[in-house]
Amino acid sequence: MVTFTLNGKERSFDGDPDTPLLWVIRDFEKLTGTKYGCGVAQCGACTVHLDGMTRRSCITPISTVDGSEVITIEGIDGPEAKAVQAAWVAIDVPQCGYCQSGQIMSAVALLQVTPKPNDADIDGAMAGNLCRCATYHRIRQAIHNAADAMEG
Amino acid sequence: MTLQQISTTRRAFLAGSGLVIGLALTPRLSAFAATKGVQAGGEDALTALNAFVKIGADDTVTVLSKHIEFGQGPFTGLATLVAEELDADWSQMRAVHSPADDKVYANLAFGLQGTGGSTSIGNSYEQLRKAGATARAMLVAAAAEEWGVPVGEITVEKGRIKHAASGKESGFGALTVKAATQTPPENPKLKDPSQFVLIGQELPKLDTIGKTNGTAIFTLDIATDDMLIAVVAHPDHFGASVKSFDDSEARKVKGVIDVKQVPQGVAVYADNTFAALKGRDSLKIEWDLSKAETRSSKALEADYAKNFAEKGLEATNNGDVQAAFSKDGVQTLEAELVFPFLAHAPMEPLDAVFMKAADGSLDIYTGAQFPGMDLATAAKIVGLDPSKVRVNTQLTGGSFGRKAQFGSPYMQEAAAVYAATDRTRPVKHMWTREDDIRGGYYRPMYAHKMRGAIDAEGRITAWDQVIVGQSIMGKADLDETSVEGASNLPYVIPNLRVTSHNVELAVPPLWWRSVGHTHTGFAVETFVDELLQKVGKDPVEGRLALLTNEPRHMGTLKKVAEMADWGSTVPDGRSRGVAVVRSFGTYVAQIVEISAGDDGAPRVHKVWCAVDCGVAINPNVIKAQMEGGIGYGLGAVLFDAVTLGEGGKIVQSNFHDYRSLRINEMPAVDVAIIASTEKPTGVGEPGVPPIGPAVANAWRRLTGSPVRRLPIVNVVTS
C-alpha cells in the first residue's frame, strides 16, 4: 500500500507497485489533465510536481511516491500558477493543447525558483517539454510576460 | 464548385437543422464530467436554427464545427464567420464538433466530411457566414412578430436585437425558440468585407482556457469505471503478420482480462493502461515476414535511383528541354536529392473509445479527420448498420495529416479490437508512441534528380526534374501530389520538364503537413537558389526577376525582404537564406538567419515570414500557424527520418531517436500578413514548405556545402 497526497488530498494505492504515477493519476484517480505522450520521459506531457519539483510521472513508479506530495495541473495554485495560466490565455499559446499541462507545470516550477528567468533559464527548464505544434515561441513570450506580471 | 454541388449543399444545409437535434454531441461519462466547458457549449437547452448554429436560452451561440479542432483553429475561425453575420458578441460564442455526416457537414472542397489540405476556412467562408446570416434573419423575424414591428426597423449589434422607435430590446436567447419556427431565407445577404466587425480581429481563441487548466478533454481522457484498455502488439516490419503467439505470461499480469488476435497483431485487454502495456510486453509472438518489406532504406535509395534513367510519367513539358541542354556555351548544374520517411508524431497518439448504448447502437469517440469514412469503416467491422453508429469527434492532440486516411486503417484496427470483445464493456484502444513512430503511413521517401541549364548570357534556360517515390493517392499514373509545386513551377524558365515515377513498397504512405510541397518545395527552392548563385544573382532579386507572372509570390518575397532588411550586414559567422512557396493557395516567403551550432549542425536564430492567405479571418491564428509550421518543418528538416535497417526492420521507436524540435532550438519568428481582399485560403500547412530550403540555402552560403539529403544532422555530423 502506497500513500501520498494528490492535490492536497490523502490518497492510497494498493495495485502493482511498478505502476507509473501517470497511470495512477489518470486511470485510478481519474484526473486527466496530465497526459501520456511517450512513456519514456522524452516529451514532458506527463509533468507533475513531486514534493515541489517537476517530475515525469510516466517513469515514476508509484512505489517511489510513498509519503510524497503530488500536484497536477488540476491542483496547481499560487501566484506563479495564476500568472502563468493568465499569460498563456492572454496570447493564446495552445494549439492542439495536448502538451500544455506539462508545459505549464514546468513553467510554474521555473518561476517558483527563478522569478525573472532569461532565455537561457527558459531553455534549461523547458527543453524537456515537447510541443509538436511548436508553440515554443509563445511559450517563451508567455513565461516572460508572467514574470513581468508577478513583478508588478 | 459545380452548380450541382451548390444545390446539393443548399438542400443539405436546410435539411440539417432537423438532424442535429437529439444527437449526443458529448460523451456520457460516468466517472467524471468531461462534458463541461467549451466542448459542450453550455448546459442549457440549445435550439438549432440550422445545421451549424444553435442558440441557448442563456444567449450562448454554439457553432457546430464540421472541421476537427486539433490545433489549427477551426473552432475559432468558423465561429468568427458565423458571429460576423449573426452580429453576435464574441463573448457569447462557443464551438463544438458537429456530428459525422458526409452530406450536411461535407467539406465543400472534398464532397465528404473531412479536414485537410488547409481547406477549413476557404470552403466554409461563404457557407458559415450564410449560416450566421440565416440565423440572424430568423431571430429578427421572431422579434418582429413578438413586438409587432416591421422587420426593416430592427437592428442587431453585439448580440442585442433592438427596435429603436419602441425602445424594445432582447438578447438572442429569449427569441430563439420562436426564431426556430421562422422560414429560413433562401439567400440571405452577406456583408461586404468593408462592413466586417469581427473578421480580421485578433479574437481570443475559443479553446484556449480548457487547454491551460487541464479541463480540455481528448479521446484518451474519456473513461468509465468499467472500461477496458486495449493495446495491440504490432510487427516491426511492414507487411508482416502474426504466425503464432504465446500469451501465457501476458495473461498472468494482474489486470489483464483477455488477449485476442486481430488482423493487425495481437490485442491485450486490461482493466488499466499499465496492465495492458505490461501484458503486451509479456507476449511472445512469431511474425510471418514472407510478405514483408525486407529492403533497407539504403537498398530503397539504390532502387529509386535506377528510375532516373527510365522514362517517367510526364507532369510538365514546356519548350524543348533536350535542345536547351545541347546548346553551345550552356553550363549545367545537377543535383540528386534524397528525402526520408517521416512520421507525423502528433502529441496524442491514435486512440478511440467504443461504448455500446442501451438500445444496442454504438458511440465512438475519436479524433476523426474523415468522420464519415471512420463511421462507415467501423460500422462494417462491428457489423452494425451505419445508422446505429455515431462518431463523436473529440478535441485532438495534433494530426498533421496522420488522422486523415482513406479507408480508415486506424479505425479498422480499433474497431476490430472492439469487435473481438463480447461488447459488454466500453473499450478504449490506444497506440503508444512506439506504435506511432513505427506505424507507417509516413510521408513517403522520395528521390529527386535535378538538372538546370544556364546559357552564355547567364539566363536559366532549362529545368529538368525527375521525382521518384510512392503515390500517396495509390495511383498507377501521374499523382499530382508527387509533383505539386514543381510541375507548376512559378519561375519563368522557357524549357521546363517535370516527370515522376511511382514506386511500390510495403510501407504505407500518407500525406504529411503540406504533402508534396514537403519535398518539391525543398527541391525547387534549393535548386533555384543554387542556379542563381552560379550566375551571380542575388537570391531575392534573382527570384523576383523570374516571378514576373506571379504577383502574390512577389508580394510576399518583397515584404519578407523588407522585414529582414535584406542586403544589410549580417553578423560574423551568420548567414541568411530565403525561400518562397505557394501551397494550398497560400503564398509564404521566409528568410532565415543561421550559424553553425556547437554540434556542427545549423542553428537557426531568426525567421522572418510573410504570408498572403487572402482575407485574414484571425491574424493571431494565422501568425500562430506560421510559427508552428516553421517549428514543425524545421524539426523534420534538421533531425527526422524513419529508416528501415537491414532486413527492413524499422529503426526508430520514440522521441529519443525520432527527434522533435525543442524550445532551445526554436528560432524567433516575426510574421507579417499581406493585406488582401482575395477569398481566404488556409494556413495550417503553408508555413511548413519554405523553412527547409531557406535553412539549406543559408547553410550552403555559410559552408559552401549544398544539402542534398535530409535530415541535415545526418549529413553534417556523420
Q: Which helices and strands appear, and what pairs or packs with what?
A:
The complex is a heterodimer of chains A (152) and B (718).
Chain A: E1 2-6, E2 9-13, H1 21-28, E3 47-50, E4 53-56, E5 69-71, H2 79-90, H3 100-113, H4 119-126, H5 136-151
Parallel strand pairs in A: 1-5
Antiparallel strand pairs in A: 1-2, 3-4, 3-5
Chain B: H1 3-20, E1 46-50, E2 53-56, E3 61-65, H2 74-86, E4 93-97, H3 120-147, E5 154-157, E6 160-163, E7 168-170, H4 176-179, E8 228-233, E9 241-246, H5 248-252, E10 256-262, E11 265-270, H6 273-281, E12 284-288, H7 297-306, E13 313-318, H8 321-326, E14 331-339, E15 351-356, E16 362-366, H9 371-382, E17 389-393, H10 409-419, E18 427-430, H11 433-437, E19 446-454, E20 460-469, H12 480-483, E21 495-502, H13 517-534, H14 539-546, H15 551-564, E22 574-583, E23 586-596, E24 602-612, H16 619-639, E25 668-673, H17 691-703, H18 712-716
Parallel strand pairs in B: 3-4, 8-18, 16-17, 20-21, 24-25
Antiparallel strand pairs in B: 1-2, 2-3, 5-6, 6-7, 8-11, 9-12, 10-11, 13-21, 14-19, 15-16, 15-18, 19-20, 22-23, 23-24
Verbal overview:
Chain B: Keywords: Oxidoreductase. Chain B: One of its GO terms (molecular function) is isoquinoline 1-oxidoreductase activity. Chain B: It comes from Rhizobium herbae. Chain B: Its EC number is 1.3.99.16. Chain B: Pfam families: MoCoBD_1, MoCoBD_2. The complex is a heterodimer of chains A (152) and B (718). With 152 residues, chain A is α+β, with helices and mostly antiparallel strands. Chain A contains five helices and five strands, in the order ββαβββαααα. Chain A has helices spanning 21-28, 79-90, 100-113, 119-126, 136-151; strands at residues 2-6, 9-13, 47-50, 53-56, 69-71. A five-stranded mixed sheet of chain A has the order 2-1-5-3-4, covered by helices on one side. In chain A, a hairpin with a 2-residue loop joins β3 (47-50) and β4. The radius of gyration of chain A is 15 Å and the shape is globular. By secondary structure, chain B is an alpha+beta fold. Chain B folds into three domains: 3-211, Aldehyde Oxidoreductase, domain 4 (2-Layer Sandwich), CATH 3.30.365.10; 219-290 and 350-430, Aldehyde oxidase/xanthine dehydrogenase, molybdopterin binding domain (Aldehyde Oxidoreductase, domain 4), CATH 3.30.365.10; 297-342 and 442-716, Aldehyde Oxidoreductase, domain 4 (2-Layer Sandwich), CATH 3.30.365.10. In chain B, the strands form six sheets. Chain B has a seven-stranded mixed sheet. A five-stranded mixed sheet of chain B has the order 13-21-20-19-14, sandwiched between helices. In chain B, α13 runs parallel beside α17 (691-703). The longest helix of chain B is centred in the N-terminal third of the chain and has 28 residues, at 120-147. Chain B is globular and about 85 Å long. Chains A and B meet through α1, α2, α3, α4 and α5 of A and α6 and α16 of B.
